Amino acid sequence: MRLFNKVAIVGVGLIGGSIGLAIKKRKLAGEVLGISRRSKTIKAGLKRGAIDRGFFDLSIASEADLVVLAAPVNSIINTGRKLSAVIKPGALVVDTGSSKKEIVAALAKILPGFVGAHPLAGSEKQGVINAHADLFKGSLCILTPTDKTRKHALTKIRRFWVQLGASVICLSPSRHDKLVSCISHLPHLVAFSLIHSIPRRNLFLAASGFRDTTRIALSDAGLWKDIFLTNSHNLLDALKKFKASLSRIQSAIAKNDPKALEKILNQARLKRASLNKK
Amino acid sequence: MRLFNKVAIVGVGLIGGSIGLAIKKRKLAGEVLGISRRSKTIKAGLKRGAIDRGFFDLSIASEADLVVLAAPVNSIINTGRKLSAVIKPGALVVDTGSSKKEIVAALAKILPGFVGAHPLAGSEKQGVINAHADLFKGSLCILTPTDKTRKHALTKIRRFWVQLGASVICLSPSRHDKLVSCISHLPHLVAFSLIHSIPRRNLFLAASGFRDTTRIALSDAGLWKDIFLTNSHNLLDALKKFKASLSRIQSAIAKNDPKALEKILNQARLKRASLNKK
């Protein structure tokens, strides 16, 4: 079902590339234009069939009736600002950034067709080489409209993500940032810290538990630096709560209190188990 | 290749059951006797074919030329003590506990054929129902002999684990406990803490990253309570280092220092990536 004539994707990585592949597979647009600073990325995007044509310059986005900003958070903000001078009237803009408050604050005013989005899909694997058309199938996509968001823009962007296979919910940008700070940003911070704290010479003993717990520490450092810094208030708050949990377990161990320790561990186990039932 | 006439497995859970299945598959013993307090476990072990006969009472272990203690750490110590009054002269004993210093200190003196072992295999899934004959295939098993360990016992126990499919290394009990405190016990503590710190109402947003990072928090609370408390000194030390890493990242975020933050994250990413090359 065609929703757009031309879609321009700025940033043809894992997410942008997967959106391109999904658009092509589901015939949601007549043409997909890819924009990247790197010729290697454009070549790979063309080869994978994620984009129909590739460009270095943002000006081609003037042809699009949907522009997808799929880059690290700070790039989304910078590109969005430049886009406001280029974009054609009535065109829609959506981003894929993992923190929303700063992006929406910067772009909602200058891009009338903008709707913030955060697809909770992805992988620690990077680049269009790892993109696939079904990345969003069965995933959750959070849209973060404000009271200024145009109704038809929200409706159409919602339909777009549903067509990509996602379930869509709406949250305010600040509510979004608070929720994902503990369920996504904190686990990344923890995984990076855990790896950081372990002597390299001990890694030979790593088994599947360690590998799974630290898998997301394979994520792109530049991307996550932006996410952490644009959601720092919530993230530091979540970190404080996490440290309090650590200290509770630490205290039960230090006091050699098996009853208190087993109780905390079992509470955590049951909470985690409740996830698997969904 | 038959190594033993009769093997008695005390604790027919995931690990004990998998050892039974592996022994049967590879014909390493003439008969496998299962010992458990619970009739449900014995029934399940018989049904899975992990044991040939099941018993509630430890006295049957007098028939065995190898006794495998596959229970939580404190049960291993308690059962090992009782075993010393029952076991036949010359019989070997091996355990599967995840901390070794306390177990070896308690049992090496009273069980002359004892060799401590820690198979780095397993799963958050519990019970003989999840056991399988190839659980140890490609895994690492750490043996923790002391200067009192009989040479033929070590040789035969090593051969046993190799036959189960594991690579075997030897470490002293205290070296073992130090190494696994950071590579296995700390990640479990972190996963339990992470789940503990997250409001239950936010769990609906959990995506694959969160699920993987906290998967090991599905592990048995009683089992891990024992492990944490019998390796508390090393674990608290590892936790201190982990908290220092957390604080370094926290400080870079609080200072809004993108350069320092990206550097730490990237160091961690590269260290984690080095694991995948093995």
Give a topology summary:
The structure is a homodimer of 278-residue chains.
Chain A: E1 4-10, H1 14-26, E2 29-35, H2 39-48, E3 53-55, E4 66-69, H3 73-83, E5 92-95, H4 101-107, E6 114-115, E7 117-119, E8 140-143, H5 151-163, E9 167-170, H6 173-197, H7 208-214, H8 221-230, H9 232-254, H10 258-276
Helix pairs in contact in A: 3-4, 6-9, 9-10
Features:
homodimer, 6-phosphogluconate dehydrogenase C-terminal fold, three-stranded mixed β-sheet, 278 residues, elongated
Mean pLDDT of chain A: 96
**C-alpha-based Rg of chain A, rounded:** 21 Å
Give the CATH architecture of the largest domain in chain A: 3-Layer(aba) Sandwich
How many domain regions of chain A?
Answer: 2
Number of helices of chain A: 10
Helical amount of chain A: 40-55%
Regarding quaternary structure, how should these chains be classified? homodimer
What class, by secondary structure content of chain A?
alpha/beta
Q: What's the CATH topology label of the largest domain in chain A?
A: Rossmann fold
Chains forming the largest contact: A-B, 87 and 87 residues
Roughly what fraction of the amino acids of chain A lie in strands? 5-15%
Q: What can be said about the biggest beta sheet of chain A?
A: 6 strands, parallel
